[in-house]
Here is the input.
Amino acid sequence: MARKEPAADAANPGRLKQIALTYKMTRRADKKIGLVLAAVGIVTFGVFLAIGFLIGHPIYLGILGLLLAFLATAIVFGRRAERAAFGQMEGQPGAAAAVLDNIGRGWTTTPAVAMNRNQDVVHRAVGKAGIVLVAEGNPNRVKSLLAAEKKKMNRIVADVPVHDLVVGTGEGQVELKKLRTTMLKLPRVLSGPQVTSTNDRLRALGDLMSNMPLPKGPMPKGMRMPRGGPNGR
Here is the structure.
């Protein structure tokens, strides 16, 4: 037991440092985050404390209010931090890949299965909803990329439904912050073994990532595809 205590003590500063870093990153995009969190905590605590005085149990309700104030503050902080993160990622090449990488269990994602020299990209995700092709870039240019990928899918996995989504804020597009939710709402039509079989067949296709090293997450704005690369014609 004595050996575990130093490890726990070392972990706490790491968590606090991570929370502080997240707060600083959030505050860059959300200047009012401090005031909002303070207001949520004070109001929650104040309401329960007032109720405590009314019913004659200010200590008990005060303690409960303090705990709930901390919980409410944490929830609000998490949501605003997530919103700020999506806001900073919005419009950056590769942002959708970062979201897909954290979509959760049951999905196998392959970033950048197709790309052109203008940095329009198509990512692929396979799950119980079938195959989902997620494109980011110019809405007009990604149509050809999606069409080419769908043609490949039909040759190898014609019995699996293929969905296509274009990330953006325009009509018919999916906002980055809603991408994960949209995919999770797709109807589940495949069983676990069928998903595994689909992934095995898709590996035969290969992808851009197997031939060209690319960083995970948003790609540098100055990065360019070499001439003659996949789908670059």
About this structure: DSSP finds eight helices and four strands in the chain. The two ends are 63 Å apart (CA to CA). The chain has a mean pLDDT of 78. Residues 94 and 110 are 12 Å apart (CA to CA).
